[in-house]
Amino acid sequence: MFNLEIFDIKLETEFIGRNFIYTDEIESTNTELLSNKQQYKKSGTVILAEKQSSGKGRKGRTWQSARGLNLTFSILLGKDKVEELNINHINLAASLAVSTAIENLYQLKTELKWPNDVLVNKRKVAGILAETSIKGNVVERVVLGIGINLNQYTFQGEFNIPPTSLKVETGLEIDRENIMAEILNIFEEMIFELAVHPKNILNDWRSKCQMIGDKITVTEDEKIQSGIFHDIDENGYLILKRDNKIEKIHFGDVSIN
Ligand code: BTN
Predict the structure, then answer these.
(1) Does residue 73 contact residue 211 with C-beta atoms inside 8 Å?
(2) What's the confidence (pLDDT) of residue 222?
């Protein structure tokens, strides 16, 4: 069971995780935070579930995670942050925070895959699903759902990127409270940094994305495009270069050719 006391001792944030909801089983922590209940109004609210009955992945996929072994949680950022920041930046910062926490605690080398997968040894250790709640055409809130494989040892199902866990990669039993607090501490610092120097976060993200410069294919529903992963732009969009033309990609799955 997740030890809230140990987690709380390690948490050094001002607002992220200060309203913390722990639950045994839920449909999806993202769906729950998007539900707009009164107890989920505060920016920085975090909900952690030991098990999700319908965990969601990007592009309508599912996210499977064994009960009690990993981390499946969501962070709410309210109007105060959404008005101030670029949502794509927040999305990239979330993957950067997860990868930085893993490197700080476990001396593993991580890699970021656009838009927000975290890989270790070319295998996926964490995924992020950012969802928004919109009123009229104004984004009111953003929910960042983070799934990290920590102590799960075997994985069943079909995956577009082979999965791994920190236990598989290190041989160690992973302390869930410690890494959870580390991620939230780092993510909050990044949120503050984004408000003043977003370029720094984008540069840190770039430095961990080994695919930049590679020949890639981007699949977005029916649309498949190949070219060179030239860079990400100031909004975090992928810049694809083909035949000396530049194409900006907002969504999609990237694979190396
Ligand atoms: C992906 O890589 O496809 C994104 C996976 C995101 C999974 C997390 S687990 C916590 C949160 N709740 C969900 O239903 N999904 C996200």
Answers:
(1) no
(2) 87
Contact present, 129 and 50 (Cβ < 8 Å): no
HSE-up of 15 (CA within 13 Å, CB side)?
A: 15
Q: Which atom of ligand 1 is nearest to the CA of 28?
A: 14
Nearest to 140 by CA among 86, 78, 81: 78
Q: Which residue is closest in CA terms to ligand 1's atom 3?
A: 57
Helix, strand, or coil (residue 191): helix
> At residue 75, what is the residue type?
I
> Mutation test of ligand 1: which of 91, 92, 146 has the most ligand atoms closer than 8 Å to its C-beta?
146
User: pLDDT per residue over 136-148, tens digit each?
Assistant: 989 999 999 999 9
CB neighbours of residue 124 within 10 Å: 20
218 touches 252 (CB < 8 A): yes
Query: pLDDT tens for residues 204-225?
Result: 999 999 999 999 999 988 899 9
Strand order across the 238-242 sheet: 245-249, 238-242, 223-232, 215-220, 253-256
E strands in the chain: 20-26, 46-52, 71-77, 110-113, 117-120, 123-135, 138-148, 215-220, 223-232, 238-242, 245-249, 253-256
